[in-house]
């Protein structure tokens, strides 16, 4: 079977992705995926290893701290990320993804960031003697891990919110009828995974998939009410397949390991990217807090609707 570029786009591209991936990676990765899938028997795991080795090569270049090698390191890091995107695409295209492959991809990503951060900042420290680079190295590793741990926890909290709503509705219905939720609350929450860098679809069990496909209570109502302009921005980004979390772990990595070395501005670019990452993380926490308020209101409305249904039976 020959795969076309349209096959690659329709079967492997995420509905929404990081803007760096959408504009600077997918145009190349998609074509490479089509060629690789049609002309070779290379497996996704082999590509994962290739991406990891390129990442180590990038770290070796960063360690020298010389300008030409910094440029080479930046190019290698980008190519490493292109391969990193290819492995998942080929796995989805051919249906050859494995649990081991997903684990390798995640672990190698974290090791790549760790090794490249140490190499880049240690090389700059050796060249300049400035302790600031050591602090930046620690900060880069910390923020990368914080971002991924935070993403996993946010997804966990959101799923728990939905389970809480479903349980409340089921309990209410079984106790005395089937109370109707207000229609304004019955539509899908398209921002469920907006905070994630990870492709988590392969990790969802059947119950989680069912929860995501049911009509669900809107847990972003208060946020949208307070920031009405957000809807227009979100729709424009969605039309271009870009998620609203504009500075995530991917953009942070690319700023530190590509933009900074290319421009010769490692310190200001790293500090600026870190600040923007924290701003977007704070925005996510704020949205989650507002969602908790929406959850409380929804639970009270379910309880109130249940009481109205049960009242005639009590009389």
Descriptive keywords:
single chain, 315 residues, mainly alpha, globular, EC 2.7.8.-, CDP_ALCOHOL_P_TRANSF_CS, CDP-alcohol phosphatidyltransferase family protein, transferase, CDP-OH_PTrfase_TM_dom
In total, the number of strands is 0
For the record, the CATH class is Mainly Alpha
* Total domain units: 1
The CATH superfamily bears the name CDP-alcohol phosphotransferase transmembrane (TM) domain
Radius of gyration: 23 Å
Mean pLDDT: 84
**Architecture (CATH level 2) name:** Up-down Bundle
CATH topology: Four Helix Bundle (Hemerythrin (Met), subunit A)
**Tally of helical segments:** 11
Large-scale geometry: globular
Topology as a string of helices (H) and strands (E): HHHHHHHHHHH
Q: Tell me the fraction of residues in β-strands, as a range.
A: under 5%
The main pleated sheet reads as: none
Name the poorly predicted regions: 181-216
Helix-and-strand structural type: mainly alpha
Q: Please give the alpha-carbon distance between the first and last residues.
A: 68 Å
Helix content: over 70%
Family: Belongs to the CDP-alcohol phosphatidyltransferase class-I family.
InterPro entries: CDP-OH_P_trans, CDP-OH_PTrfase_TM_dom, CDP_ALCOHOL_P_TRANSF_CS
Pfam family, one: CDP-OH_P_transf
EC number: 2.7.8.-
How would you summarize what this structure contains?
With 315 residues, the chain is mostly helical. It has helices spanning 5-12, 19-39, 44-64, 67-94, 99-128, 132-176, 206-213, 221-226, 229-239, 249-263, 266-314. The chain has one domain: Up-down Bundle (Four Helix Bundle (Hemerythrin (Met), subunit A)).
